[in-house]
Automatic annotation (TrEMBL):
Tagged with keyword Ligase: no
Annotated Pfam families: HTH_18 (PF12833)
Stored PROSITE patterns: HTH_ARAC_FAMILY_1 (PS00041), HTH_ARAC_FAMILY_2 (PS01124)
Alphabetical keyword list: DNA-binding, Membrane, Transcription, Transcription regulation, Transmembrane, Transmembrane helix
Name of the protein in its database record: AraC family transcriptional regulator
Domain of life: Bacteria
Amino acid sequence: MTELYFNLNDVILILSIGVSLLLSVFQSVFNTKNTYSRVLLAAFFLSIAIADTGIMLIWNEHLPISHLLNIIVPYFYTFATLIKGPLLVYYVKSITQDKFSPSVGGLVHFLPSLVIVGLLYAFNIDINLFRLDQVGIEHTTYFTTDMIWWAIKIIPLTYFCYALTCVYFYQRDVVSDNSEVNEAAIIWLYAITIAFVAANGWAVMLGVLANVFGLPYGVTENYLNFILLISLFFYSVSQSQQLTLARSSKPKQASTTGSLQHIIDGINIGIEQKKLYLNQSINIEQFSDAIDLSARDVSFAINREFGTNFFEFINSHRVEEVKRYLSNSKYNHMSILDISLESGFNSKSSFQRFFKRLTGMSPSEFRSSRAE
């Protein structure tokens, strides 16, 4: 009778390994302006391929394992699993920050993986010991190996949570500095990072359940990771290139280039005389340059005097411009979409959302009410 080497879980792992390798190679031919994001994403996919290969070699006892593999697999598996977190964090930063470049100080995030690998070496932990299923394992070695398994689960979760906070601060900063942002791309990025947090939180919970109740549901982690793998690739192709980049450095307070009233007067000139809000892609730096003020001062004044951020401030004036068009019968020949574009909006969804929120009615309802 033929012995079965692979079960369904192994098939999922094999698919994940193959897809990860293909996606890693694919990054080298993917045409993007951001070289760092391609390299980081390729490294992330490669780390998944190595980690999944390690999982299969460690837990599939039917596979023939050479003496060399028995020794080195825990090292490769552990290192690949632990660097996934920092790689995702840096990938998120590379696609959201203007002029991003990895720093030497950032290498500290790879220190935990090196420490854990060092422990594997110090205690001479091979695949057999790594499984923790041998009788008579020395107590210190057992404890260390168990702690390594928990580190493998908890450290990536910590970094995925960090990646999620990076998305939050990115969304906050980019909205405060730009009049138009690609909300769909931001929502996707939120969804991806939240999914990684949830999947690894699930893995930690399964580890707890396995230790306390002996429940054998750990394989579901592999299925979730396979889905995330495909989702991340889809996002990198379809959405990440459309993200509005945040500035690398953020001002904390106003400078001393002028009084608050002087800054407010300049902002009003930019709105009332120059009508800078009609520029569909204007950001706070372009706005500030046009009125000879610093972006720091403008951001501070808008927040202090108008109680809002640049994104809301500019779009509220665009809504007023739309209302002017819709209230005048001589523009009845223009479609609402054309009017929104003339008023500075370049996204139909954001226009409709802002207009409904600020007026309490849809653009078509507003036009009808003015015609009565």
